[in-house]
Specification:
- The complex is a heterodimer of chains A (about 240) and B (about 350).
- With about 240 residues, chain A is of the alpha+beta class.
- Chain A is about 30% helix and about 20% strand.
- In chain A, strands 1-2-3-5-4 form a five-stranded mixed β-barrel.
- In chain A, a hairpin with an 8-residue loop joins strand 1 and strand 2 (about 165-170).
- In chain A, about 35% of the residues are buried.
- The N and C termini of chain B lie far apart (about 55 Å).
- The longest helix of chain B has about 35 residues, at about 210-245.
- Chain B contains 18 helices and no strands.
- Classes of the chains: A alpha+beta (about 240), B mainly alpha (about 350).
Chain lengths: ~240, ~350
């Protein structure tokens, strides 16, 4: 039987762990920002529940323990906390794209509810997802010729890419990193090879319709490539 | 059940100094480990696994805590006699009521498990509990609202709610003749059948001031009991997602039936919370038939890797298998019928 004080400690630790993800700014590496408030509620809830063992009357549950938690079970419960403390938090990167569907070409996609909002956004403030949605809604890639873009993402490349090419990529998530879907813009620049895969970069340039992997698409011809830090919000939210 | 803690166990946890020493050792070990592990030693796959595991866990854990709190408050504040006044005598009507119970307790597939277990301990009929367990992740205000936001008032919303209800009530009714001791784990059964001591401690023997703390601590016990299943399930889901190639999986879905099976398999592997899976399903609407998206929306909330593992905390193993296979077969039958006859 697990001592009450240990249970209480584990619950409080769980609360502090969740709070530490929020406080450390890494919570958005895992979940959509709309769930942040739930994580905070849970953090407070765990601490209150953990403290409640102190005030529980000892005779009320004596000899009547329904739980069948063993030390091994408890070890499983603390796994997320231990992993979280030992392994530095990192958002999904290029490695996670190898077994996912990489959306580069204009896919026929369901019209997103936020499409009108996207199209009315000033072009300088558009992120990769906004551009992708615009591409999806117009079948002709040449209409974007000459339009200026400034986006942030990480470098992705596979064997289809030439030395002067990479994809500036982001993951979109609707729930959490478990449903992450990669999207990206093709970038061409002579400096492309200076940036290793997974490096976060800021790309500034103009679109020019071109061929990639046998398909016609808008390609971002970069004027400026600069390394940058992982943004506070690494994922983009389609809905 | 009535054995007290052994003296040695009492000893170490009543000594604050020892407790503190163990805690400090634990923290020191973690700090040492962290300092000695280079950032990228884990490899890319390992890092992806950890991130996905943490994300499923962090996303789901507030819902499990909420379910445990509901369970704790039921334990302390809901008298079994009052509960029984509202439970229909006829098992079929009990299953119907169970299917709609989610409108009263808005819980998703993580929160519903501890609540069901607690209601079983209070003597809820098997059929009603199973119907509640399977239906509540869809038939609750939050999920109906998110499905409406994604698909609008259309056949997808009605079909999702209607067929989830139908399947849940049918599976619940199938357990009409079963006896609880064949179905439930011993610790999920009605208290009064297996304990000699009368310990119905609801309301009666707890002073009013202490009831809140008792409810909260009971919620804590419930959470710790169920969390290991959630965590093991999240790990399995994360491992599948790190190893299984999604394009290969999605490429399987060309035929009528194979596309239904593909999206059901994807729902099982992804283990995404039912409160948001409608938005995810939206991404499949153009590449898959409506009936396969419906299969994703009906089957996913009832059964996925993490909820199937959590069922093991309530039901006996054989029964968990039925609870996976019955909804699977029924969802498949319904959606295949729709795609062949309504050309959906």
């Amino acid at each position: 039987m697990i001592p009450t004080s240990t249970k209480s400690l584990v619950l409080i630790a769980m609360g502090l762990y969740l709070y530490s993800r929020f406080f450390g700014g890494t919570l958005l590496f895992y979940i959509n920002e709309r769930f942040v408030i739930l994580t905070l509620f849970a953090a407070v809830g765990f601490i209150i529940v953990g403290l409640s063992y102190r005030y529980r009357l000892p005779n009320a549950h004596e000899g009547h323990e329904h739980g069948n938690l063993s030390w091994a079970g408890l070890a499983i419960v603390v796994t997320p906390i231990v992993l979280g403390l030992v392994i530095p938090p990192k958002p999904l990167g290029a490695a996670a794209m190898s077994n996912r569907d990489v959306r580069l070409e204009s896919l026929t996609s369901a019209p997103a509810p936020s499409n009108d909002v996207v199209l009315s956004k000033p072009k300088g403030e558009r992120n990769i997802l906004d551009w992708q949605m615009d591409f999806w809604s117009s079948p002709d890639p040449t209409v974007f010729n000459g339009q200026e873009a400034k986006v942030i993402g990480f470098v992705y490349r596979d064997d289809r890419f030439k030395a002067n090419e990479f994809m500036v990529s982001r993951f979109t998530i609707s729930c959490c990193a478990a449903d992450a879907a990669p999207i990206g813009l093709m970038v061409r620049s002579d400096e492309a090879k200076l940036f290793p895969t997974d490096q976060w970069v800021e790309v500034k340039g103009n679109f020019q319709a071109g061929q990639f992997d046998g398909k016609e698409m808008p390609i971002l011809i970069a004027d400026l490539l600069a390394p940058t830090d992982i943004p506070n919000q690494p994922y983009l939210y389609p809905y | 059940m009535t054995t007290l803690d052994t003296p040695s166990a009492q000893l170490w946890y009543h000594q604050p100094a020892k407790r503190l020493a163990i805690l400090l050792l634990f923290l020191a070990a973690i700090i040492l480990l962290r300092a000695n592990i280079p950032v990228d030693s884990l490899g890319d796959k390992g890092q992806t696994f950890v991130t996905i595991f943490q994300s499923i866990f962090i996303e789901a854990v507030p819902f499990l805590l909420a379910g445990s709190l509901v369970s704790g408050f039921i334990e302390v504040f809901v008298n079994r006699d009052i509960l029984f006044r509202f439970v229909p005598r006829n098992p079929f009507f009990a299953a119907l009521a169970g299917g709609g119970l989610g409108l009263l307790f808005p819980v998703c597939e993580c929160g519903v498990v501890p609540v069901t277990r607690r209601l079983y301990q209070k003597g809820l009929p098997l059929s009603m509990g199973i119907a509640f367990l399977l239906a509540a992740p869809v038939i609750n205000p939050v999920v109906i609202a998110s499905t409406y936001a994604a698909f609008g008032w259309g056949p997808m919303l009605w079909a999702r709610v209607g067929f989830s209800f139908l399947i849940a009530v049918t599976v619940g009714t199938l357990f009409y003749f079963a006896r609880p001791e064949e179905i439930l784990r011993p610790d999920s059964q009605d208290d009064h059948d297996h304990c000699e001591v009368d310990h119905d401690h609801e309301i009666v023997d707890i002073p009013p001031g202490a009831r809140l703390w008792e409810a909260l601590a009971t919620a804590g016990d419930d959470f710790l009991d169920m969390a290991r299943y959630l965590i093991a399930g999240s790990m399995m889901a994360a491992a599948m997602q790190t190893l299984v190639s999604q394009p290969t999986l999605l490429a399987l879905g060309n035929g009528t039936i194979s596309s239904i099976l593909t999206l059901m398999m994807l729902a099982f592997v992804l283990s995404v919370c039912s409160t948001v899976d409608a938005f995810l399903a939206l991404a499949f609407i153009n590449s898959f038939t409506p009936s396969s998206v419906l299969a994703f929306l009906v089957f996913g909330p009832m059964v996925d890797i993490k909820s199937a593992l959590m069922f093991m905390g309530v039901f006996q193993r054989r029964v968990v298998l039925y609870l996976i296979l019955l909804p699977l077969m029924m969802t498949l039958t319904i959606t295949v019928y729709l795609s062949l006859n309504v050309s959906w």
